């Protein structure tokens, strides 16, 4: 990959300055944990809770990697893979009141126009 813009050069310089020798990290997972980009995990017996990112590493590195990610997902070479790997949206959600079943009316109990007028005034 080549860096064609001043922003790309700045990104590369900040990453190199903050990380130093990259060979000291055996995997990308170790690097992201060192940078503070992994979620905080709290566990007790069988319960595991994943929280927000831990923010334990360099503020500059975390900032520049997040900026690079936002730029890359809009870039044509990466946009297709970003949108392909992204989970589908959940779709429209109804308000909780619309999901709950209302009170049931007995069979044959129909509303009259007078009942509708009373309800609209309330």
Automatic annotation (TrEMBL):
Extract the ranges annotated as region (Disordered): 73-122
InterPro entries (UniProt xref): Transpos_IS110, Transposase_20
- Compositionally biased intervals (Polar residues): 113-122
Q: What is the superkingdom listed in this entry's lineage?
A: Bacteria
Q: Which residues form the Transposase IS116/IS110/IS902 C-terminal domain?
A: 8-82
UniProt protein name: IS110 family transposase
Print the organism lineage.
Answer: Bacteria, Bacillati, Actinomycetota, Actinomycetes, Kitasatosporales
């Amino acid at each position: 990959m080549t860096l064609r813009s001043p922003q790309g050069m700045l990104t590369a310089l900040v990453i190199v300055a903050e990380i130093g020798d990259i060979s000291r990290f055996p995997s990308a997972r170790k690097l992201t944990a060192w940078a503070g980009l992994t979620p905080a995990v709290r566990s007790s017996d069988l319960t595991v809770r994943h929280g927000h990112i831990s923010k334990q590493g360099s503020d500059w590195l975390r900032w520049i990697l997040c900026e690079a990610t936002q730029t890359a997902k809009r870039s044509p070479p990466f946009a297709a893979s970003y949108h392909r790997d992204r989970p589908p949206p959940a779709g429209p959600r109804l308000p909780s009141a619309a999901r709950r079943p209302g009170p049931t009316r007995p069979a044959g109990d129909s509303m009259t126009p007078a009942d509708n007028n009373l309800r609209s005034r309330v």
